[in-house]
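Reviewer 2 asked us to include a model.

Predict the structure of this chain.
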Amino acid sequence: MLHLKSLTLVKLGGSVITQKKVSPPTVNNMAINRIAKELQTHQGSLIVVLGGGAHGHQAAHIHGFGDSSTPLEKLLAGIPSIHHNMTLLSLEVEQALNANGIPSVVIPPFSSVSMHDGEIMNFPTDIIKWALEAHCAVIIHGDVCLDDVQGASILSGDTISVYLAKALDIKRVFIGTDVDGIFEEDPRVNPNATLVSVIDSSNKDSVLAGAGTSAATDVTGGMARKAWELFELANQTTQIAIFNLTAPGRLTALLADKSTTCTRIEF
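Predicted model (structure tokens):
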């Protein structure tokens, strides 16, 4: 088992670190630099997972990912552009973290992860462990991966976050989005929707049934799938929070174990 000081996973939502509705894909450098400064406050080992945002979802949508009727040739033709775009995004984040005193390396899923009908079949983690033990923060991004059934499929940042949290026994998982957390209804549709501060076994079915999906193009399932995947991870020793990464200071508060506006998922 990996034992590292305060190993924490932070997922940076693609809607925050990219201009998700702008085409061609554009990085939100102002947000990335501010987030890097907040991450700098963390004392311990760090995994940063990147959502796709404009860089992943636009090309994936163009090439028919998320549509079961898309022919194999069209999916395969999307591999270069999707992976290239995500590489560009990851390098921007890597540069910002290094500039803020966080030694960081990018480990791309495409080169090592294999999929089976849309699900992870093989995800080696030794290189991640070694990088962490070398005192590097590890950046991993959502990506397109080869799939022995579909030819190629999308591996989302949320799925990566849950998989690594289980595989590496990570005790703190913070999921940054562009809203305050999970709401009873989609807050973009109903501005008066109620934020759910805690999701547990007593309310998960009713809350997640009403959780809104992303208003922008998203081929990975939106907020509802995000919450379901995270609930699979929840236990008595793992802290899980979904929070608004666009709100300055909230990530800093979570990293310092201080109270802040968010949705916590509990066992």
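The chain has one domain: 8-265. The first strand starts at residue 8 and ends at 12. We have added this to the supplementary material.
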